[in-house]
Design goal:
It is a single chain. By secondary structure, the protein is α/β, with parallel strands linked by helices. Helices cover 42% and strands 14% of the residues. The protein has 13 helices and twelve strands. The strands form three sheets. It has a seven-stranded mixed sheet, sandwiched between helices. Strand 5, helix 8 and strand 6 form a beta-alpha-beta unit. The radius of gyration is 21 Å and the shape is globular.
């Protein structure tokens, strides 16, 4: 018998599964293209025209490696945030930065606290280093700050994850509650505060930038409101020593030259960002109105999607989603108990929301039948 090189015990124990089934895979399976791609929380509005023009201009230079220091983008982000460049690190989207944070703070067997049903990629990274995931149920469709805090103290957890605004529910906590939570955390627990949807949130949901909190690592991205999900560029900011330790292990050539340039140009065009945020709010209103017109309950959202309570159980919500997919409308849904009564619909262009409005009544009728 031919022997294979042995895996580490941690990797050997992981299940063989596909974390995300993307719309491309679903289209390959069905043999049909989606008419409305409103399920992955991307920005159908796309990046700024300035960004597109700049990317076209520099395409000829992509034979060069990127700047491994990400220097220009770090300096621009530091200026934007009002901090020093040594308080900023660039990564391959928030997903890449989550991987680094987990490697920094979690040893095999350590308890790591998150919400039951929160962003699953974080969980995959915890499993990959042998951490022990401790989950806290949502309360009233929001992540439970008190529940997370209690679990952190009970488990002596070195790491806790919180997204604000939240994915998959779109709900949020405001600054005073977040600061109360931060103040109550043990000094030995690092908080990852995922602010991927910060640009579409009310100002009150974003605490002031404070890199003097030694146990808070905040993450943001160019994937959502900036319209650059396909380019994989995100950033984190924190105490300079925390960032210096991220620098020890990050992939220094992981953020491409194109991603760095696109991020820099996107950050410079705040006027365009403001127009996108307004379009996101208008599209959320349209999706919510369609939900109500069909007897469903939209959950107030501070993100670029709306989570909709279908008014039934998990099986019914699953049938609604599957019937929408069969009608070539790509949406998703939460999968854990309580949250799984819902579907989740990303904002999109007007014609995509039109299609959603046309097909939802048929999907509901088929699910009820």
């Amino acid at each position: 018998m031919i022997k294979r090189p042995p895996l580490t015990p941690i990797i050997e124990a992981l299940p063989s599964s596909v974390p995300f089934v993307g719309p491309e895979a679903q289209q390959r399976t069905s043999g049909r293209a989606f008419r409305a791609r409103i399920g992955a929380n991307e920005s159908s509005f796309g990046p700024s025209p300035r960004v597109i023009a700049r990317m076209e201009e520099v395409a000829k230079d992509m034979w060069m490696y990127c700047d491994p220091d990400n220097y220009d983008l770090r300096v621009a982000l530091a200026d934007h945030l009002g901090i020093d460049k040594d308080n900023v690190v660039i990564g391959e989207g928030i997903d890449g930065l989550l991987s680094l944070a987990v490697r920094m703070f979690v040893s095999p067997g350590d308890a790591v606290v998150t919400s039951l049903g929160a962003y699953p990629t974080f969980n995959f990274h915890v499993a990959g280093v042998g951490g022990r995931l401790v989950t806290v149920p949502y309360e009233n469709d929001r992540e439970s700050l008190d529940g997370l805090l209690e679990a952190v103290k009970r488990e002596n957890a070195p790491l806790v994850y919180l997204s604000n605004p939240d994915n998959p529910m779109g709900t949020w906590w405001e600054t005073d509650e977040l600061i109360r939570f931060m103040d109550a955390l043990p000094e030995t627990t690092m908080l990852i505060l995922d602010e991927a949807y910060g640009e579409t949130a009310p100002a009150a949901a974003l605490p002031p930038v404070d890199v003097n909190r030694l146990n808070v690592l905040r993450m943001r991205t160019f994937s959502k409101a900036y319209g650059l999900a396909g380019i994989r560029c995100g950033y984190a900011f924190a105490d300079a020593e925390v960032i210096a330790n991220v620098e020890k292990i990050r992939n220094h050539y992981g953020v491409s030259r194109m991603a760095q340039i696109a991020g820099l140009e996107a950050l410079a065009d705040q006027d365009y960002l403001a127009t996108v945020v307004a379009k996101v709010a208008a599209a959320r209103d349209r999706i919510s109105a369609i939900a109500r017109d069909n007897g469903l309950t939209p959950i107030p959202s501070a993100t670029n999607f709306v989570t909709i309570d279908c008014g039934g159980d998990a099986d019914f919500a699953m049938k609604v989603m599957q019937n929408m997919l069969a009608r070539e409308v790509f949406i998703r849904k939460p999968m854990v108990p309580v949250l799984n009564r819902c579907i989740r619909v990303s904002v999109g262009l007007d014609h995509e929301i039109d299609i959603f409005g046309q097909e939802l009544p048929h999907a509901l009728a088929a699910a009820r039948a």
